[in-house]
Amino acid sequence: MSNARSEGAWLNRWQQQTAWPVIGLSVIYIAVYVVPIFWYPLRPGLATVFHVAEYTIWGLFVMDYAVQFALAADRRQFLLHEWLTLFFVVFPFFRPIRAVRGLLFIRQASTKKKSLVSSLPAILISMAVLLAIIASAAVLNAERFVPGATIKTPSDALWWSVTALTTSGGGGLAPVTNEGRIIATFLLIFGLGLLTSMTGYVASWVLHQFSVAREAQLSDDVAGVE
Question: What is the arithmetic mean of pLDDT over 148-172?
Answer without folding.
Answer: 84
